[in-house]
Structure formats: structure tokens, C-alpha cells
């Protein structure tokens, strides 16, 4: 492009009245008093400078696209780059036209004129196509049509008419027939009307999105309201960036359509025509850089209520005080405290987890250990299957039962080290995903998909065992292994819901092996069962986390997100996430793949489900547990706002996975969430 520019700039200086020679005076000095010469000077400098600017802008787009955060730019930057290239060659045609005039070559002049007609037919409509693409991004994020279809139909309809006019004008030029004034007026009027129609469609469509993100309908001071304010500010800027080029182009086209030319060349008309052809590219570029992140408001970061910090601190102090008291002098809450202390002292090493995983299925691993749970299938068996089919039988001790992490001889008993990391996961997900996420965390990986593939490969477990042994030893608190299942669920499946209901379907699925379809065998141990109260081990997450934070300064929270994102719909998991977030516990999220929520993905159902998630829609294995969790939440709507911050906030769980989303799409999705939150708060 640079070579082409210099050649095109040099040609007018080498041609003077049809002779090839170095004649800079033709441009600069020889006809300074002539209107025609002034027009040629202006045209030369205008197209040369604009060509330089097009090259510079195209280079900037290429540099920005090479940056990691713009690898997936949804076509905005690449489309703009093509626009700059086409604009550059249009400006080169303007310089070549000067050569044709100087050489007094009618054929070259006519060819260049025809090429310019086509170029400046496609360029304005390509600009309209860029507006259409940006509007499509807003539509995809908002989930409703906003007029991009109308823009597309208008664009293609006008293009077909314009091509007919171009053909007629080119034919007339080649035949030497003088064009009627109405032809150019129709040409420019069509372009002007097209830009005005597109501008109106954009204004109406984005006004609909801004109305959905009305902050006044949301709770004052909430994260949803702050995000709605951010969304409206960005969408208003987007509206200006989209309609400004349309209005300016329409003004130029209307001026050219109705400008009354006098006989002979007109400097005013030349300035008007050249401005239309050279100002649009820098204006489009300025608006595009504006859209892609420059000079835009920062995404909101709220300091949500840390209402549980004090309670966690006081809890840990009470627990420590109770532990130091002699038997018989402990407080009335000693049973509750003892349960919390017992839970917090349990943990599992990654090696233990891998050795357990290697025993599952109808085989023996390299250590010769007896295989358990012959029905295990890594691609089908859930954590619930493994708990019922392997953990419960293996943790039976005589007529009683223990947590798997407390079994005699277990490696967990060889050290009094507290867990380094608490794990949140859902039992309805693949057990393979849980193990892979924990192993990936121990290996300091940022996704677990490849680890899952290695786990099921022959010899993969042993290879991973060797790798994790080379890393620093970490201990994990996993409810499936660290909660005594014999003091809760081992001998039953809970009360049967009404047949035919969704709850009954989930209940029935939970009592059957996913692979074989058989109902799990119940445990006949005599271990007392507790589903609530001080001796229950299934509802002490808050207190246990407070105690561990007090005793283990480096405690982390690992969120093992399953491949179907069901974790965010489980009531216990949601409660753990928000509690950890409000307590400033460092959170690590691991997905099967960090591209799971990529904006380029065709299926955005997962994102849309998470964007409108509330705790009221979450599920639990027992309805009593769900109601108990809801009862502990003082303000359900505020809790929902905090949940959205946990997932989508600037320090939320999915902040890295969402980094590839462009801000236009993010603003539209924020507006959609705001509308959903407002509808939920207003009720039916």
C-alpha cells in the first residue's frame, strides 16, 4: 500500500500536458492564478493526505487486532480494516484521475471515472454494513431484534438500485452523452436517505435497550443498578458513535445532490466532493475506536456489604474459647462448635484423590488395589453416583460410619495440617470433572479439560500422580469426602415428592445409578442421622469457613464449575459462593475450557441463564434444605445482586472467561440483566 501511494503521488508530477517529465510546477507554481489549477492542487493534497491516514489507521487496526484481548473482536476491527483498504484505493483513483486529465487520455479518464463511481457506491454502503454489524452485536447481547434486519434489507435494496445508476452513468460517460442533472441528484439522494434511515433505526433500537436498563426500577445502591447505569452510559455513547457518521454523510450527500453547479469547474463543489470521500474514513475510525473501548466508562466495582466478616471473627473466637475449656464447662453451643471444629480438621491430598479415582471401575490400577464401583463410567457417572456407590461403602466402619477423609490409615490422619483450599462443586456433575478441576488447580492450570482427557487415558492417573507429587503439597476440603455421609444420607433418599412433578424426577434420578439405572443399595449402619441441628455436618459451611480463615491465613476457595454450569443452580453451592465472596476469601474458578462462554459460541443459553439467575430458582436435593437456605437470607433480592456480582463482577468468578467479550455486547447483556432484575423486583 505504501509503494502504491508513492507511485500514485509521483505520477501527477511526471506528467504535464501529456508529456512524461519531471514537472512539479504543474502542481505547485505554473498555474497559481487558475481556478482549475487550484482545484488540482486541492485534490492532490487532499487525496495524498487521506491515503497516508488510511494506511496509518489500517496499521492501527492490525496492531489492536494482534493484542490478546482483541483476538475475538466479533469482526468489528477486521471489517474496519477492509473499509480502510477500500477507501485507500478509492483515494488512489483520485490521484490517477489527475494523471488521466494531465495526459489528456479520454479512455483512461473514462475508466477511472467508472471505477470511482463503483468505489464510492460500495464505500458508503460498506459503512452502513459496519453500522449493521455493531447493531447485530447489541441484538445478540440483548436477545431481541433491534432493526439490523431492516438495515440489511435497506442496504441491499439501495445497492441494487445504485448499481443500475452506475451502469447508466458509466455508459453515458463512455458514449460521450451529457448526463442529466437528475441522475446525480438521485445517486446522492439515495445515499443520503439510506444513511438517515439507518440512523433512525439505530436510535429507535438503542432507545429500547436503554429503556430496559432504567436504573430507577432497580434497588438503590445495588450492583444491578450500578451496572445498569454503566450500560446506559456506554449505549448512549454507542448511539452517538453509530449515528454521527450517518448524519454527517447524509449532510454531505444532500449538499452534493442539490448543489447548483455553474458552468465550468467549481472549487466549492470540489471541496464538498473531496470532503465526502476523505472525511468518512477517519470519522468511522474515531467512532470505532470509541466503541471498542477508548474513553468509555469503567465497569462498575461495588463494595458490597461484608456483613459476615464480624460474625466469622466472633465465631472463630468462640470456637477457640470452647476448645480450650475443660469438658463439662463448655458453652451451650459446644455441640455445634465441636461439629464445626471436627469438619474443619478434615482434608484430602490430591494424591489420595487420584488413588481413589484409579480404583473406580471394573479394573485394577497399577498398585493392585481392588477396584470398586464396577459400574463406574468416567463420561457418565456423577459425583452423586460415586458417593452412593463407592464412598458410602468404603467409609463404613463396622456398624458405624466415618467421613472418608477420617478412615483409619488414611493419609489425612498422618498430619494435623488444615485444608489449604475449600472446594465448591455440584453432585449432579461428572465426578471426572471434579477430580480434573482439583488436579488442575494443584498443577496451577487455568482450565481442566485436558486434565480430564488425561485421567481417562491409559496410565494417565499414574502420570498425574507423579506430576502432583513434584508440586507443593496442598490439602482440599471436599464435602463428598470430608462430610460423614453415614450421619445423613446413607440409608435413604429423602421423602418422595409428588409423582409426576419435576421434583420427583430429580429425586428418582438421584436414587439411581446413572450408568446402570439401578436403585442404589442402602446402608444398614446404625450411625445416628442428623439433617439439621448442632450435630448436622451438612449446614456448617459458614462457621467452618470462619474458623479456617482465622486459623489458616492462606485459605482459598476453589469453584469447580461443571461443563453444564449446573453449579450455579444448586442452592448450597450458591450460598457457599456468596459467603466466600463477602468474606473476601480468595476465589479460583476452573472451567472445562475458558472458551466456554466465548462470544463467538453459537449457543449462548448458558450465559443467558447465568445472567438472569436468582437464588429463588436454585434447587437442592431436599426441599427442606432449600427452604432453610432461603430462611437464612435476610434480603433475597440483595442476595441475588451479590450473586450476580460474584459471577459477573470485575472481581467475579468468570471475570477472566468474560474478558474476550467486547464492551458493546457486554453493555447489551447488562441491560438485559437489568430488565430481568427489575421485572423480578416488581413482581407479577
What radius of gyration results from the CA coordinates? 35 Å
CATH class of the largest domain: Mainly Alpha
The shape, in one word, is elongated
**What is the name of the CATH topology of the largest domain?**
Rhopdopsin 7-helix transmembrane proteins
Secondary structure class reads mainly alpha
CATH architecture of the largest domain: Up-down Bundle
Strand content: under 5%
N- to C-terminal separation? 61 Å
Low-confidence stretches: 18-22, 68-72, 302-319, 321-332, 598-604, 656-661
Q: Using DSSP, what is the number of strands?
A: 9
State the domain count: 2
How would you write the strand order of the largest sheet?
Answer: 3-7-6-8-9
Instruction: Name the average pLDDT.
Output: 75
In percent, how helical is the residue content? Answer: 55-70%
* Count of DSSP H/I helices: 24
What oligomeric assembly is this protein in? single chain
The biggest beta sheet is recorded as: 5 strands, mixed
Transmembrane segments: 42-61, 107-131, 156-174, 186-213, 234-255
Keywords: Membrane, Transmembrane, Transmembrane helix
